[in-house]
Every structure is written in C-alpha cells, then in structure tokens.
Amino acid sequence: MVTGCLNFTQFFMTLKGTGDVRPGFTRSSEGEMQGSTIQRIRNTLRSRRAFTVIELTVTLTILAVILLAVHGVLARTISSSQKAETASRRATISDAILRRMAADLRSAFMSSTHEICFKGDSESLHFVTSMTSLAKVGQEASAFNSVGYVLGKNDKSSSVFRLFRREARGKIDMHEGEYRELYPYIGYIKFEYLQKTDGESDPDAIQIKEDWDSLRDRGLPLAVQMEVRLFFPDTQATFSSNTFVETQVTRYRAVFKIPAGGYYIPDPDIENQAEPATTDTTKETGQSSN
C-alpha cells in the first residue's frame, strides 16, 4: 500500500516537471534526457540557419547569367522582327509607287497633235493616259485622263519632299486636276527621257534627254527613266530635319517603257503646206515637157 502511494506521488511529480519522466527513472537520467533534447533542438536550429554571403553571391551570379542569356535571345528576336517589318514596309511602299507610275506610262498616248500631251523635266512629269482610275460616287468614268507626278514641300522637314499624283479626268490640261499624296518622305526624284537617235552607224542607239515636249519632239519618248530616293523614318520618331539622318534610306531606279512612244509624228500642218507646192511643181514640169 505504501509502495502504491509512492508511485502515484512520483507520477504526479513527473507531470509537474519535477519528478522522473517515467517511473523508475532517477533525476540524473531525467537531466540527461532534457540535455539531449535541447541538443537536438540546437542542432535543428543550426541546420536551418540563413545563407552565407558566399552562397548568396554565387546564387545572384548564376541568376544574372541566366537573365543576360534570356535578354540576349529576346533582343535578337525583337531586332529581327523589326528588321523584317521595316523591309516589308519598304518593299510595299516602293512597289506601290513604281506600279502606279508603270501603269500610267504604259497607257500614255498622243491624243492631239496640236496640244501638249506629254511634258516633263527632271523633277516633274505630265502626260495623257488611257489608264482608268476609280471614280467617286456620282462621277462618270472617263476614257482618258491627264496625269502628273510632282514634288511638294514637306512641313516637317526642309530636306524632305512629298510626292503627289495629279489627275484631271477627261482633260488634256497639264496643270489642272486633283492632287493626291503618294508618299510624304522623298529625298529627291529625277526623270530622264529616252529617245532613239537617227544615226546611220547605230540605228538602235538611245539618246537621253533631260526634258521632253510632245509638240517640240513630235511624239512620245521611247521610255522614261526614274531615280528616286525614299526615306523610311521610325514611326515613333519626331519628324524634323535631323530625324532622317538616322533612318533607312533606299534609292530606286526604274525604266518605264511606253508602248506608244519612240515614233516620230510629223506635223500635219507642215505636210499640208508642202503638198500643194509639190503638185504645182509636177504640173509645171508636165506643161514644160509638153
């Protein structure tokens, strides 16, 4: 009975933390167990300590290398995409301008021998063409049009010009008509006119003229040679005289053949004046022979 009371008292003291952990354990064994528990806790805390400076430095270095590699790949991808887009835009704009001119010049013709139907210099070109254009709502389509290509001032830069296409529906006048902008950034444009020479040594020789007048030259040129310089500025740039220095510049040269050109058209008035003289000479010759 006494032994049972002692065991209960020992168990109660253990619950309060002052007795043995289990019956039969002495206080010395309890102290050893508590010391080992504290040691395990310390070891756990030491194993969960923060990173050292060397570990952080190595980690940041590896992260920086990875970021640099990713940035390089992205930069090359974006640059290639921008170059492809710029090249596509250049090809689209230049092709549209050249096709428009080629279509108009292929259909050029002499509509009258008494009026100027083709007139051009180094920076402008005007002629009559049968190329039909899109008429506005309520307008009648015309069988022929007077078309011109001229340069105009650009308000954003003094070194860059605007290219306009003039069109007068159903008229031969070289100045009237509606002007529409084809492209706003032209460095320069130069027209030259090809004509066959009358040389006996080389009948296929070509002469290049700086200007052309259908009345003076009696007809249309064999072809028109054009050289144009196009600017392709950045769409996000502020357009000024200095902006175009860093933009893409492309020079194009094209030759537009005129199917109705290259033929000499004599003046009918001169021929009509020469015919009576020839007839009278024949009659006088016939009378004298008789």
Q: What features would you describe in this structure?
A:
- This protein folds into two domains: about 45 residues, no CATH class; about 180 residues, no CATH class.
- The protein contains four helices and nine strands; from the N terminus they run H-H-H-E-E-E-E-E-E-E-E-E-H.
- Strands 1, 2, 3, 4, 5, 6, 7, 8 and 9 form a nine-stranded antiparallel sheet that branches.
- A hairpin with a 4-residue loop joins strand 1 and strand 2.
- The termini are far apart.
Structural class by secondary-structure content: alpha+beta
Query: If you average the pLDDT, what whole number results?
Result: 76
> What is the rounded distance between the termini?
187 Å
What is the molecular shape? Answer: rod-shaped
Q: Which range does the strand content fall in?
A: 15-25%
| Helicity, as a percent range | 25-40%
Question: What oligomeric state is this?
Answer: single chain
Largest sheet: 9 strands, antiparallel
Count of individual domains = 2
Strand tally: 9
The radius of gyration is 47 Å
| Model regions low in confidence, pLDDT < 50 over at least 5 residues | 1-6, 15-21, 273-290
What's the layout of helices and strands?
Elements: H1 2-15, H2 27-47, H3 53-106, E1 118-120, E2 125-129, E3 145-153, E4 161-169, E5 178-196, E6 206-209, E7 212-213, E8 223-232, E9 248-257, H4 268-289
Keywords:
alpha+beta; disordered N terminus; 2 domains; 290 residues; single chain; 9 strands; disordered C terminus; 4 helices; 9-stranded antiparallel sheet
